[in-house]
Amino acid sequence: MPAMYLSGASTVWADALFVSVLQRSDVPSVMEVRQAIAAAVRAYGGRGCAQRVAQEFGDHPETAVARMRWARAMAGEAFASLVPAQAGTRRRPGLLVSGSAALEMAGR
Questions:
Q1: How much is the pTM?
Q2: 22 phi and psi, to 5 degrees?
Q3: For residue range 46-82, what is the model confidence (pLDDT) as tens digits?
Q4: DSSP 3-state assignment of 39?
Q5: CB atoms within 10 A of CB 66
């Protein structure tokens, strides 16, 4: 999948989790996060989630910032295997190489 699509998808995931019924205090599992995201997207659609996020930032910016940070982190964890790591991020998958190719790369 193209990175642009995944970047857009991760935004929708975060928006959907933001508008979901899940709360940070629930300490949700990865499965619960995925289910909440799916339910919010089904209920509101991607644009509807974004509109609700915008409304919340307009009405309650002081709490919306913290909730969005939480939503982005949780959505990132829930779908980490689908989003390519970017330079400087904590989670960076390694290259799967073996034999002489691994030795060549180690010498660089």
A1: 0.69
A2: -65, 145
A3: 999 999 999 999 999 999 999 999 999 999 998 887 6
A4: helix
A5: 10
